[in-house]
Design goal:
3 domains; Aldehyde Dehydrogenase, Chain A, domain 1; 26 helices; Aldehyde Dehydrogenase, Chain A, domain 2; 31 strands; 10-stranded mixed beta sheet; binds 1,4-dihydronicotinamide adenine dinucleotide; alpha/beta
């Protein structure tokens, strides 16, 4: 036999990892688990089984949580929270560091247990899940240490309810628990029902690490228990899982004052250009879609190949698929393990068998006859609108289509309701870096894929959810400002009778697409001065006007591509023109409000224009040094079109204070002006008209905010809604936003001081972070 023949026939031998210690640990625990509440394991209750998906064997029984369990856990977390926060960042850092060390010490046990419970290859659990979980605790130990000096204005939110999925059980636990604890919060976490064992082992090490009682609580069970956690007396809900459940949670928490972050599904494009290193790009796909059996929210599940190389690429890909080794997850030479549960297997099979489009190729590799295994599958020649190009399969099934030009690649890539991640494969750095900003995604990988790190925020846009986990930005989801805030007071409009004092009837208009526009309703309302004199009429905007404003804002998308320098110039120019009319505005404000604060309010508006003009070219991103070859560039991008319900009490400063940060960062805005005092806004549109603000960048509506709030929240082409208005509208905004899972920012009844607004908070609300991973250095 020649050497080349040996190479031809040589196969990997099996390299099984022993399950003995993990199984012994389960037996040690009695084979059945209760919850982890207030530092103790509770007695096991109503049981449900957790199985090894590779064999179908029962591993242990877990307890289905009850309302009483969730209440007890929340109570314990509430009791423990003040002391945990008061202990200070450095004290918390020690505990987080101890957790990281213990995870490291027991990493083999964690990895085997994870592989048994979830079905993922031991190689992945050992080399990715567990080390990444450790890294999260190390990284956030550092964040706890730095909190007093770097985040002096931040404090904990309180108790966090966290619901996690089954695809990265321990890693998702780490992503949730590490930042929460670092910032002084306590947690009640519900692991996924299929995969709770590593959470139980984590509970076991919490005591050893010195985590005080009640700081970490873990309640097991199904979605019903998740619902209980979401509706419990918690200050924040953090969820990772399906978009459908995320949407339900958005609705359930609307108007509750609870902070919310959602990390949801994806259908991430994997774009291969004709100048790519084809073999690397094929190998990349193994990590993109066959990593964790494709059960990855950011999986590169939608292959887009440049037409000239499509045939070659698919041929090489099929050949590579045939070499994938599917089998026992505990075998160290396995590439693809078991699907988490037969139910998920059924979902994948049903989606694939319902498909009649394209050409399906199933890898020619051996599949175990028993257990929840699904063969690596490729479906080529799909059209962008085909179901499988749009729906998340969450299994080892890759769908593929081709493109002709870079522009077409971008348009197909963005043609989905999701926006989590994207991969670009090209040897041309100019091309890759030209495409990266055009992709609607929270993460872009260039010539690599599925890379994650605690230092680089992870999260998406559109229906992939909102909020980031990891990095500095991830911390804002677990903190609030220490600055005291007053409560918003309801303000009634002035009333009066009779004609205007100068006999001239003034009917203001809406400001849409750079033009004064009549309201679609055809109605206007009288606006009275404090002394009962008629000041004018304000148009009553309705849903149709919101739609027109959205259209105008979308037509002005070029604004997002302008430079910070240019936007600063325009903001300064608005300030200059407002200053020239300062007296007139001050008088108008005093007339409407019947006070003497008009001049001060105009000054506050001018100041905010100057402040955000100053920031327009300075609120830069970061470059993260990640422990993988390359760097992650955290770019701050505009959110898109933002609807804002402006403050009633500060008709000018509140309007300008919302507009300026939004447009400074490249967004277009639709402002719903102060309902009781709308005329400062209609006057302000004249200032905009003379200040070189391109048509559609700022749109101003007057009239009742209720209808406008609902229309904005439900509009599919508005990317975020801010509410500084009536606190009753918080619920309307948050519930309506479930439509396209847009970002919302409500004040929960707290008033903003428009003379000294929290500029950095505004800027972070006005931007979306996109982490672009690029090869760099050796
Ligand atoms: P799921 O979203 O139902 O489960 C995730 C977690 O949410 C689990 O802990 C579950 O118990 C909990 N949960 C379920 N219903 C809940 C509710 N009403 N309120 C609060 N918590 C609730 O995901 P599932 O059904 O296991 O998987 C279905 C599909 O979801 C998958 O095929 C995949 O497309 C997607 N998925 C996405 C994940 C991601 O990381 N983006 C992770 C898991 C699933």
């Amino acid at each position: 036999m020649t050497v080349s023949e040996i190479f031809e026939t040589m196969d990997y031998g099996t390299a099984p990892e022993s399950a003995a210690e993990a199984l012994a640990w389960i037996v040690d625990q009695g084979g059945k688990f209760g919850h982890f509440i207030d530092g103790e394991m509770t007695a096991a209750g109503t049981p449900f089984e957790t199985r090894n998906p590779a064999t179908g064997d029962v591993l242990a029984t877990l307890t289905q949580g009850t309302q009483a369990d969730v209440d007890a856990a929340v109570k314990a977390a509430r009791r423990a929270q003040p002391k945990w926060e008061a202990a200070g960042g450095p004290a918390r850092a020690k505990v987080l560091y101890a957790l990281a060390r213990l995870l490291q010490k027991h990493s083999r046990l964690f990895a085997v247990l994870e592989s048994l419970d979830n079905g993922k290859p031991i190689r992945e659990a050992r080399d990715i899940d567990i080390p990444q979980a450790q890294r999260h605790f190390y990284f956030h130990a550092g964040m706890a240490q730095l909190m007093p000096s770097e985040l002096p204005d931040a404090q904990a939110l309180g108790v966090c309810g966290q619901v996690i999925p089954w695809n990265f059980p321990l890693l998702m636990l780490a992503w949730k628990i590490a930042p929460a604890l670092a910032m002084g919060n306590t947690v009640v976490l519900k692991p996924a029902e299929y995969t709770s064992l590593t959470a139980m082992l984590f509970a076991d090490i919490c005591g050893q690490a010195g985590v005080p009682k009640g700081v970490v609580n873990i309640v097991t069970g199904d979605g019903a228990v998740g619902e209980m956690v979401v509706s419990a007396d918690v200050d924040k809900v953090a969820f990772t899982g399906s978009t459908a459940v995320g949407r339900r949670i958005r609705e359930a928490t609307a108007g509750s004052g609870k902070a919310l972050t959602l990390e949801l599904g994806g259908k991430s494009p994997y774009i291969v250009f004709d100048d790519a290193d084809i073999d690397s790009a094929v190998e990349g796909l193994v990590d993109a879609i066959w990593f964790n059996q494709g059960q990855v929210c950011c999986a590169g599940s939608r292959l887009l190949v440049h037409e000239p190389v499509a045939d070659l690429f698919h041929t090489k890909l099929r050949a590579r698929m045939d070499k994938l080794r599917v089998g026992s997850p505990l075998d160290k030479s396995i590439d693809v393990g078991a699907i988490v549960d037969p139910k998920q297997h059924e979902t994948i099979s049903a989606l694939v068998s319902a498909n009649t489009a394209g050409e399906t190729y199933v890898a020619d590799c051996a599949i175990p006859e028993t257990g929840s295994f699904y063969p690596p599958t490729l479906i080529t020649d799909l059209q962008p609108a085909d179901t499988l190009m749009q729906e998340e399969i969450f299994g080892p099934v890759l769908v593929s289509s081709t493109f002709r030009t870079p522009a077409e690649a971008v348009s197909i890539a963005n043609n989905t309701r999701y926006g989590l991640a994207a991969t670009i494969w090209s040897e041309n750095v100019n091309l890759a870096l030209d495409i990266a900003p055009k992709l609607v995604a929270g993460i872009v990988w260039i010539n690599g894929t599925n890379m994650m790190d605690a230092a680089a925020g992870f999260g998406g846009v559109r229906e992939s959810g909102f909020g980031r986990e990891g990095g500095w930005e991830g911390l804002s989801a677990y903190t609030k400002s220490k600055a005291p805030q007053k409560q918003v007071k309801p303000i009634a409009p002035m009333t009066g009778s009779g004609a205007p004092s100068d006999g001239i009837d003034r009917t203001a208009k809406l400001y849409i697409g750079g033009k004064q526009a009549r309201p679609d309703s055809g109605y206007s309302a009288q606006v009275w001065a404090k002394n009962g004199v008629l000041l004018g009429h304000a148009p009553q905007a309705s849903r149709k006007d919101v739609r027109n404003a959205v259209e105008a804002a979308h037509a002005a998308k070029g604004w997002s591509k302008t430079t910070g320098h240019l936007r600063a110039q325009i903001l300064y120019f608005i300030a200059e023109n407002l200053t020239a009319r300062a007296e007139e505005f001050a008088h108008r404000l005093d007339q409407m409000q019947g006070g003497k604060t008009g001049a001060k309010e105009v000054e506050a508006a001018v100041q905010s224009l100057f402040t955000y003009a100053a920031w327009a070219d300075k609120y830069d991103g970061q470059v993260h040094g990640v422990p993988i070859r390359g760097v992650a560039m955290a770019m701050k991008e505009p959110v898109g079109v933002i609807g804002a319900l402006c403050s009633a009490a500060a008709p000018l400063a509140g309007l300008v204070g919302a507009m300026a940060p939004a447009i400074a960062m490249g967004n277009r805005v639709i402002l719903s002006a102060s309902e009781p005092f709308p005329l400062a806004a209609t006057d302000f549109s004249q200032v905009l008209e003379t200040s070189d603000v391109p048509a559609g960048v700022v749109n101003i509506l007057t009239g009742p905010q209720g209808d406008v709030a609902d229309a904005m929240a439900r509009h599919m082409d508005i990317d975020a809604v801010w509410s500084f208005g009536d606190p009753d509208l918080d619920q309307v905004v948050e519930a309506g936003s479930a439509s396209n899972l847009k970002r919302t920012w409500v004040q929960n009844g707290k008033a903003i001081d428009w003379a000294t607004p929290p500029a950095k908070t505004f800027l972070s609300q006005a931007t979306e972070i996109k982490n672009i991973w690029v090869p760099y250095g050796e």
